Amino acid sequence: MNNINPVDSYISDEIHEECGVFGIYNFDGKDVASSIYYGLFALQHRGQESCGIAVSDTSGPKGSVRSHKGMGLVNEVFTPESLEDLHGNIGVGHVRYSTAGASNRENTQPLVLNYVKGTLALAHNGNLINAMELKEQLAYTGAIFQTTIDSEVIAYLIARERLQTGSVEEAVKNAMVKLSGAYSLVIMSPRKLIGARDPFGFRPLCIGRRDNTYVLASESSALDAVDAEFIRDVEPGEVVMINEKGIHSDKSMAQPKVAKCIFEYIYFARPDSCLDSVSVYNSRIMAGRILAQTHPVDADLVVGVPDSGNAAAMGYSFESGIQYATAFVKNSYVGRTFIKPKQSMRESSVRIKLNVLKDVVKGKRIIMIDDSIVRGTTSERIVRMLKNAGATEVHVRISSPPFLHPCYFGTDVPTGDQLIAHNNTVEQICEVIGADSLGYLSVDRLSELIGGDKGFCDACFTGNYPIEPPKEDIRGDYEK
Amino acid sequence: MNNINPVDSYISDEIHEECGVFGIYNFDGKDVASSIYYGLFALQHRGQESCGIAVSDTSGPKGSVRSHKGMGLVNEVFTPESLEDLHGNIGVGHVRYSTAGASNRENTQPLVLNYVKGTLALAHNGNLINAMELKEQLAYTGAIFQTTIDSEVIAYLIARERLQTGSVEEAVKNAMVKLSGAYSLVIMSPRKLIGARDPFGFRPLCIGRRDNTYVLASESSALDAVDAEFIRDVEPGEVVMINEKGIHSDKSMAQPKVAKCIFEYIYFARPDSCLDSVSVYNSRIMAGRILAQTHPVDADLVVGVPDSGNAAAMGYSFESGIQYATAFVKNSYVGRTFIKPKQSMRESSVRIKLNVLKDVVKGKRIIMIDDSIVRGTTSERIVRMLKNAGATEVHVRISSPPFLHPCYFGTDVPTGDQLIAHNNTVEQICEVIGADSLGYLSVDRLSELIGGDKGFCDACFTGNYPIEPPKEDIRGDYEK
Amino acid sequence: MNNINPVDSYISDEIHEECGVFGIYNFDGKDVASSIYYGLFALQHRGQESCGIAVSDTSGPKGSVRSHKGMGLVNEVFTPESLEDLHGNIGVGHVRYSTAGASNRENTQPLVLNYVKGTLALAHNGNLINAMELKEQLAYTGAIFQTTIDSEVIAYLIARERLQTGSVEEAVKNAMVKLSGAYSLVIMSPRKLIGARDPFGFRPLCIGRRDNTYVLASESSALDAVDAEFIRDVEPGEVVMINEKGIHSDKSMAQPKVAKCIFEYIYFARPDSCLDSVSVYNSRIMAGRILAQTHPVDADLVVGVPDSGNAAAMGYSFESGIQYATAFVKNSYVGRTFIKPKQSMRESSVRIKLNVLKDVVKGKRIIMIDDSIVRGTTSERIVRMLKNAGATEVHVRISSPPFLHPCYFGTDVPTGDQLIAHNNTVEQICEVIGADSLGYLSVDRLSELIGGDKGFCDACFTGNYPIEPPKEDIRGDYEK
Amino acid sequence: MNNINPVDSYISDEIHEECGVFGIYNFDGKDVASSIYYGLFALQHRGQESCGIAVSDTSGPKGSVRSHKGMGLVNEVFTPESLEDLHGNIGVGHVRYSTAGASNRENTQPLVLNYVKGTLALAHNGNLINAMELKEQLAYTGAIFQTTIDSEVIAYLIARERLQTGSVEEAVKNAMVKLSGAYSLVIMSPRKLIGARDPFGFRPLCIGRRDNTYVLASESSALDAVDAEFIRDVEPGEVVMINEKGIHSDKSMAQPKVAKCIFEYIYFARPDSCLDSVSVYNSRIMAGRILAQTHPVDADLVVGVPDSGNAAAMGYSFESGIQYATAFVKNSYVGRTFIKPKQSMRESSVRIKLNVLKDVVKGKRIIMIDDSIVRGTTSERIVRMLKNAGATEVHVRISSPPFLHPCYFGTDVPTGDQLIAHNNTVEQICEVIGADSLGYLSVDRLSELIGGDKGFCDACFTGNYPIEPPKEDIRGDYEK
Fold first, then answer.
1. Contact between D398 and D370 (Cβ < 8 Å)
2. How would residue C390 be classed by pLDDT, with cut points 50, 70 and 90?
3. Residue C188 located in a structural domain
4. How many other CB atoms sit within 10 Å of the CB of residue A470?
5. Are residues B184 and B322 in the same domain?
6. Average pLDDT taken over every residue of chain A
7. Average pLDDT, chain D
8. Residue (of D261, D260, D297) closest to D394 by Cα position
9. Whole-number pLDDT of residue D97
10. How far is B95 from chain A (nearest CA, A)?
11. Directed axis angle between helix D151-164 and helix D168-178, to 10°?
12. Which residues act catalytically here (chains A, B, C, D) (predicted)?
């Protein structure tokens, strides 16, 4: 679901990851385009606005890079023919979501560019916070920009550093010194595949293997999709380089402090992914358990708001002993391209997306688990649907703390005044959404979701940014 | 999911409903196209190949019927502009699935036709078994046919009967005398909306109301989608006629024996629908309970194959006390239009659609509930996926009896020799799919799914056809 | 050019032929779809709104007819793949133009239908004047209609007659007894190709041959396009039947009076076609010569309005001795799908289509030849363009008499009050269009265009209809 | 016609111009997108592969540039909606043809880029010969390239020069010092419109005016299309800058030697255009006259191969007194997107495009004028068509000298060995094409086409390149 054709506030009242990346190197010289295609399918939830693939044939003449990109979902942009044309045994892929202003063809990735040493293809997940400064510096030495994405700035830096140093991987490392913010990168030169993760490790990136093939992907579920075995995560600050000799790692850019995005576990990532050695599914079960401990309530059923609330609901049920149930039926045909008719009808677009199983909830006291509340409109409607279907009580439990601060590191959590929690107490929010009680996950217990690890970013809940954010919100300005 | 772009046997190894119908009459003269659009969205699972809407303005000149039809999903065929053009306060809609041979533009519905008394629009769910004879009789009196669907035969009969009688609803009744087989019809004349259901009641049809608006729909969940309240089901053999004076019922065509399709409850219908006063969700819970009673096994977890196996898994859990769990993550982006790349890769198309939550199943003895086994290939792969993810045992339970006979009444259950149960014992099937044990729902207990009612058709399991089927399988022949 | 996306009155100020037909029978069993495709390309000027092809394999099982139809030009509707799928050694094709109301998918041709004796495909050029009566009669015996074209009525009659008689060609003849109006038909049964022309011969139809292949086509230029040799015209009232034994002719339906459309020669047909043994090009040269005799004027140059005015201009030049010149450049990229921007600009859409060669006309006295004047707006603009470019005098000569009456026989010449000549004298028209003088071809001399033959229809100029036209203009009504 | 979907050698046997440019500045603040749209229509013959428009609103915030580009013809890429979105009173447009390798979305123009001083949009007609060197130099200072067109190199140079100088127009001039080759540029900064032409003036560029609006265009016929009056040509080496104060000219880059492409007059440009004060139509008339003087022959008719041969044929007729005639009918529906069916048929694709008027040529001795012979295949077929239609003699006259050398300055005249004249004498060519005689325009008399002016480039005929061409053919290499 994205914001291109919003049904209404129900559907647009969501937080989005901004990208997913995938890279692959087949040592046997076999084409990899279809594997990238499958991998991007598995990462589609990280970006539904545009996608692209670039490949290179390591046995061909230097620079024989082919690419295909477009606006839309993976299965809209690619055809069997376009995949067939993408000959090459090494490649990178990208799925992208973006805020409205920059939703255009120019901004699709992977960026494919020629520079002094040949061709480079770059796929980027994350967000720089010093993109404006870097862009200005580059412009003052004669750079021209044909997109409005910060990834182009990264590409420029790498190209410039390459002039001073002997290899692409060195150039990437040197560029990383100048980059500030979130970036998980997959980069292809005609003969090499490089993966890099910013020192804070905001966004995930992992390594897999299938026979004579190495794979890099934002999430481990994308490895499953290509039958690759999970090897390990790329560590924060690590640069891995895969060439015909194998895989090489450089961790010289690592730093003590890491700040992995905790919301990847709560909502963004697929439950069947494992990020930095932690199962996303288990972290959600744990969130539900903690909610049951901290916000217990007497009720008949625990239900999750599909799909992300289900695991936490299961966890709440485990901990509380209250029966888990399925209360909602989701219409999977109402997709990204759902078009709202001009003739309006009360609430239909919510109903068409989600319906309540009346027989399940009628006469029952319900604990409803959701992953977050942004503006509150969706929660209010879903609570109302449950009550209309005969639920006698609806107790809402949220598997994350309240959103209070914008995110500058690769998601679109908005500025405070668009967030219901910014101006309302929990009691007020409870009233707005019409619930009988409301409980959030406590900030104090977030680390339990990832096994007690403290190296995570919770700035959207606490305002404690791992890197000083820019004074003014530059996220929109960058586009200009 | 349909068979137009099959991923592979996993996805095509499914049984399909052949159609869904929707009708609406707004007494306040307001446009109904967007309501039909929402209604068809809710019925999309009943047919993903083509769809259409026809409307009439009861205040306009007689015969001002407008229609729009096309190949594809509801959100592919309709745009805000095409809906805007469909002015009219009375209308019918249709979604269609078909076997490959007849998948073309000519066969889309609603059929819109002119005859001696003006315009008629007809939407049909079901299958006639005497279509060939009727067609031949009509041809011998000079009829020409421009489609290969039996619905055109129904339209002809109504047009001919209308010559002899005083109203469309009488003509429908008189035509019903000649029709043999399954049909739930929604018919629009310029000033009337008519619903009719064959005397056996093979396919469902229900009536709803929203303020000054009457609605007819294949399933009650489509009423929810337009905020209409469920009034009652159209009874087998009943004809309802809605005009400016209200709703009128004629049950003179009813007969003692009814034969509602039991597989609607097990698989076809949405769980949030209520068909002939029975909740589909509850009937699935019951199927799970019966399986737990008849095929108990010691295990750690009960899991459902999404989406249709989940409710039965819940029922098995309730009855057995064994923990219910979610073992699979479904990729909702792999839709109808998923294109399989020409370059092949082992099993990826299954993996891309369904992934296992390894942390859930690892080291566990699993009871896996699915709704049916057609050829066995899908079951075999899913069992293997669970074992590869670490499940120590996989016990398969099927919430229906084995398929043994073809269906002639509106679904595509194939002839016996394409069905694994036709030539294999349960033990053999168990071996083929690699399960540790296998249990089917017993035919004897099917009636418990619908509260003990005996008026259902179980011919695909038993061969006891409510109407004598044609000597040779005419389903394909008709198309020629 | 058609009326779907009219640029403005310049482009829509044209008269349209309503259809072109093509048929082919290859005795060697080779596929004919690509030949039909080429043939329809050559007939594209007779209809740009929709087109279609139906083929049959005479060696296959009876009734294996395949067809492909769609809205748009031949090169928009067909792809190499769709042609590839059309296996068959016998086939018919159709191009269609229509008035706005009936411009939809249902009305595309060839009509493909099943009836008591199998499959029939029918392509029709012309217009019946008793379609409404026939339709009503058919409806009263239970016929249903799924299109709004009179060709469906013809199909019905043939199907009904076939019940009483022993062959399709007999059924066609019997149906012809009941049909009144204009029709050139190409009909395909699974093993036969039939051509028929109404007794008046309003619309052309000819026979060609290439090796072991017979071809039927609206114009002889379509024979050239498939390298076939012109054999002869199908005569008015003749039915030809081609089967595996060869070609058979039946002229029993012929009648003394024929009424070939004279405007085919003046404007509709291609100049490289030969209709009923008369070269279209020569008839236009003759029209120019007559204009030079009857409306001489002292001038420097004779120019034609492209493309149809050029030949007549050449003829005027031959007769008068005045220099022929090219004064206009036509932009061939402004096609059927030209989209007029919403932001307006004075007259640009004329300019974009036609520009004047200033160096040619500057300071010159010009005789400008065009084929007709409908509303006068186009002529006015072109005269103005010439004067703005420096022409000192512009004398307009029209190679047809003034339009005064509507056509009921297959073109869209409108009713009188939309025709400038209906309410204006020649002097008044001359003033409206800003010409220095204006001369029309005289009705008396029309027969000279076709070698003195008197068997033509000039009803749009004279009101002398060969068949009594319906009392009210039924052309639009039929659509309802 | 371009080479994307070649019908066969007939259609691909053509020489192509590589681009057309258009710019406009409306001082009244009115939107200009629709005017650019009309202008590009008039220039469509200069490039049919892709097109684009970029506009800026001078009253808006700096940098509010909007653009829309795409693959295809002007009427395929733009819709009323996309034009509506292009708000702005200043804008540039581009149509492009390219050789196959670089036919992709990235290479569409105008290039829109951000640099240190804001936004720049650039449209380029021509070809640099030092693009490779410049690109390498830029790469060695850290430039990255996202397209494979030399226009990106120009954009880079301007951006770099802008760092050192005070205005865009100065930067353009400074960049011109480094550029070698052919370029007519239209450049838009947010508040200025700039036109520039290389010092040799290879490609045309002119200035027009309509009320308070200035227009720049490749050809004067594009001024006609927007009702603008021709003011003057941009001179070779001139830079014009239009801002809110009016139009300013800088001719400091001019040099004594100019080298306007003579083939623009013979073939590329529209006959209704006037380039550098010479009417294209008149220059073609003159070419025909010279051919009549230098290659006289006794014959009955002079005919032109449409469309470009017609004017020269007229000139031949004037000079020789032999009757001019139209011998060919061109099918205007066989456009850029003509798809050749896989099933082949002898010669049909020529026939479908061009047919002979048999009545005109039968028994006649014909002089056939064409603009050029590339490989000879087309000429051979057309001569054969004339003879098959009954011409007793066919004398071919070519209104240009034989092609012998490749063009490096903005057209696709190929290398010598693909040119029939490279390895054959005139007598041999005459034999190959089956003509009774053959005569080319003499190189000596080329200057008469443009009034005796010697400042033209005839390198494709003579090998006398105005600038030393690169040692190896870099035209394809650049793409890599």
1. yes
2. very high
3. yes
4. 18
5. no
6. 90
7. 90
8. D297
9. 84
10. 13
11. 120
12. 19
> Which one of C352, C364, C385 makes the best mutation probe of the D interface by having the most chain D beta carbons within 10 Å?
C352
Is D54 strand, coil or helix? strand
d(Cα B104, Cα A85) in Å, to the nearest integer?
30
Question: Which position has the token pair 């209520």?
Answer: B274
**Residue A229 forms contact with B (CB below 8 Å):** no
Report DSSP state, residue A338. Answer: -
Q: Which of residues 24-83 of A touch D (CB under 8 A)?
A: 63
Burial of B60 (C-beta count, 10 Å sphere; 0-12/13-18/19+): middle
Same domain, B76 and B153: yes
Q: Are B208 and B229 in contact (CB under 8 A)?
A: yes
In a domain, B211, yes or no: yes
Which residue, of C258, C292, C320, is where some domain finishes? C258
Evaluated on CA atoms D96, D98, D104, D106, the torsion sign reads negative
Question: Does residue B252 share a domain with residue B350?
Answer: no
Strand B323-325 and strand B301-304: the pairing is parallel
The residues of C carrying an active-site annotation are 19
Looking up tokens 């477009």 gives A70
**Are residues C367 and C255 in contact, defined by beta-carbon separation less than 8 angstroms?**
no
Would you call D343 and C31 a contact, using CB atoms and an 8 Å cutoff? yes
Residues D167 and D29 in one domain: yes
* CATH number of the domain within which C434 lies: 3.40.50.2020
H/E segment holding residue C309: helix C309-320
Print the domain residue range for C380: 279-454
Q: Based on the number of CB atoms within 10 Å of its own CB, is D346 exposed (0-12), middle (13-18) or buried (19 or more)?
A: exposed
CA angle (B20 as vertex; B19, B23 as ends), nearest 5: 140
What's the one-letter identity of residue A231? I
Buried residues in B163-201 as b, exposed as e (16+ CB within 10 A): eeeeebbbbbbbbbebbbbbbbbbbbbbebbbbbbbbbb
* pLDDT(C5) > 90: no
- At D439, which amino acid appears? G
User: Are D193 and D299 members of one domain?
Assistant: no
Q: Kindly state whether residue C331 falls inside one of the protein's structural domains.
A: yes
Q: Of the residues A212, A228, A258, which one is the last residue of a structural domain?
A: A258
CB contact under 8 A, D143 and A115: yes
pLDDT higher than threshold 50 for residue A19? yes
Residue range B65-91, pLDDT digits in tens: 999 999 989 988 998 889 999 999 999
Q: List, as ranges, residues 141-180 from D with C-beta within 8 Å of C.
A: none
What does R_g of chain B's alpha carbons equal in angstroms? Answer: 23
Q: What are the tens digits of pLDDT across the range B78-131?
A: 988 899 999 999 999 999 986 533 557 888 999 999 998 889 999 999 999 999
Indicate whether A254 and A348 sit together in one domain: no
Inter-chain residue contact B111 with C146, CB threshold 8 Å? yes
Q: Which amino acid is at D56?
A: S
pLDDT tens string C123-141: 999 999 999 999 999 999 9
Q: Looking at the domain assignment, is residue C109 inside a domain?
A: yes
Is B460 marked as binding a ligand?
yes
Biggest CA pair distance of chain A: 72
Give dist(CA D382, CA D351) in Å, integer: 9
Residues of B in contact with C144 (CB under 8 A): 113-115, 120, 155-156, 159
B205-246 per-position pLDDT tens digit: 999 999 999 999 999 999 999 999 999 999 999 999 999 999
Task: State the smallest CA–CA distance between residue C432 and chain D in angstroms.
Answer: 23
Contact: A331, B44; criterion CB under 8 Å:
yes
Residue A411 pLDDT exceeds 90: no
Q: Are residues B188 and B310 in the same domain?
A: no
Which of C120, C144, C480 comes nearest B155 by C-beta?
A: C144
* Whole-angstrom distance, CA of residue C311 vs CA of residue D364: 18
Measured in degrees and rounded to the nearest 5, phi and psi for residue C156 equal -60, -45
Structural domains in chain A (count):
2
Are residues D218 and D294 both part of a single domain? no
Burial C449-459 (b: 16+ CB within 10 A, else e): bbeeeebbbbb
DSSP classification of residue C403: P
ipTM: 0.90
